[in-house]
Amino acid sequence: MGTQSMDPRKLNSTPIPFFLLCSLLSLAASHEHHPLDPLTPLEQIQVQTIVKNSYPNVTFHYVGLDEPEKAAVLSWLSSSDHSNQIPDRRAFVIARDHSESHEIVVSLAEKRVVSDNVYDGYGYPVITFEEQRAATQLPLTYAPFLASIAKRGLMLDQVFCGSFTVGWYGDQESRRVVRLMCYYINGTINFYMRPIEGITFIVDLEEMKIIGYRDRVIVPVPKADGTDYRESVQKSTFDNRLKSITMLQPDGPSFTIEGHTVRWANWEFHLAFNMRSGPIISLASIYDHEENKHRRVMYRGFISELFVPYMDLTEEWYYRTFLDAGEFGFGQSAVPLQPLRDCPENAVFLDGYFATQDGTPAKISNVFCLFERYAGDIMWRHTEGALPGDLVTEVRQDVSLVLRMVSTVANYDYVIDWEFKQTGTIKVTAGLTGLLAVRGSFYTHKDQIMEEEYGTLLAENILGPNHDHFISFHLDLDIDGEPNSLVKAKLQRARVTDGRSRRKSYWKVANETAKRESDAKIHLGSGATEILVTNPNKKTKVGNDIGYRLIPRTVASRLLANDDYPQRRAAFTKYNVWVTPYNKSEKMGRRALC
């Protein structure tokens, strides 16, 4: 169960077999800077140096572009002389020093820190890979854990541990901690299917030591048989010998990439990599041949947050209510895409960079792929046979441009596609694949279960806990420019009572324009309502407002109580759509810390 929760932030008033058509490009290519370009590796090193001059022992948890004011970007975009109008380049840094979280802005032009705010609210920054690796090594030399492993008859050299954020349960936070879960690798590469249940670790990340440990109960470790997911060791029960399918473009791709700007068909947009959000799409516009100009559709679009609450109330599981972007970094968790596997033959690959714990830039090769997709689908067609002596058939192929990234956050792999269509549609999909996180169990058959187990018995001694995935997209829509309005088009049944027709009922549309933020908090699926984003100052030839529809896929709603701590922390899941006036500081909610 899950949902894709849309979050538009600026509305209301305001595959060939013998040679590979596969290119490698770098998002850090040399070109004239665009105001929204991500920081280059050289700029990240500059930021590292400037910050360390003030804080020699600092740890970096986020480094990214401090986005210029929207008005400044749009002014630059409309200027004929971009070289003289580009806003100053600045970096936004979240760092830890002496157990304090600093929000730092660095001017790259002035080579200095221009603001430094010590964050004193709830929440902590993204956990670094270095912290995760260090924490997961602690159990291997911890005497109580060694005794627990021996008591279970397991071999220590076959034990692997992972770290998990702990959520928030109303306590005043004084320590930045994680919990650890350990697994038994012996006999399989799929360690997630062999949890060592009943053991609880708490690790202080600042002191990097175990501050809490409990061995509550010994639960059988599930068997390794049949858990290896690698294709080379799979025993297939069906004939999967498929003949090859290719996507051939002998003249190369139809799109071009200049710096970070992508142009395809009538589309133009800016693409950037962000270590928290992954792909950021900016200034998406469509070229209007009649008016001989680009007309903007979206100023900025990206994943704001992913909330993954598990419904298991046991001591070793209740705290698992993860924020995958804010706690683990959805972008820094991205993985190199595999040519011909993750992306087709005609894909172009691009690299991305993020800052490691000491501020050094690290490259993720092939973090994005960009390709044209044609799967035999029809964009539009019609056959007309009613004309005397004439048969007219017109068919348009549905060819689109896809931007893809895969982020692996622990056991789950998220496949994110931004798809641009010739119809003017932007389609965003989030696919979930990878592995289940399972809990060890005493049960070998469902008939043995006599009490609530918060999930499904999947195999002997393996329970799959119930859980959700909620994905929030921040969409700053600028339909044909500014300003925009949110319109709820409600389909209403009307009765025929005046005898004007033999019909007794029909439906009509009643448009309701949101005037306040409270009008723009929407539960999808609760009624026959279409969501429109319109520009009241731009009209079609017949006088209708220019607009786009927001079309959700299958909708699911959260079921947690309003006063439950995970729900309070991820309150954005209360509604499927929130619309607010534009506010630069609200890109990921009010704060960048979770």
From TrEMBL:
Contains 1 topaquinone per subunit. The active site is at D324 (proton acceptor), Y412 (schiff-base intermediate with substrate). It comes from the Eukaryota. The modification 2',4',5'-topaquinone is found at Y412. SUPFAM superfamilies: Amine oxidase catalytic domain, Amine oxidase N-terminal region. Residues 246-588 form the Copper amine oxidase catalytic domain. InterPro entries: Cu_Am_ox_TPQ-bd, Cu_amine_oxidase, Cu_amine_oxidase_C, Cu_amine_oxidase_C_sf, Cu_amine_oxidase_N-reg, Cu_amine_oxidase_N2, Cu_amine_oxidase_N3. Residues 1-30 form the signal peptide. Its EC number is 1.4.3.-. The keyword Signal applies. PANTHER family: AMINE OXIDASE, COPPER AMINE OXIDASE. Belongs to the copper/topaquinone oxidase family. Homodimer. This is Amine oxidase. It comes from Sesamum alatum.
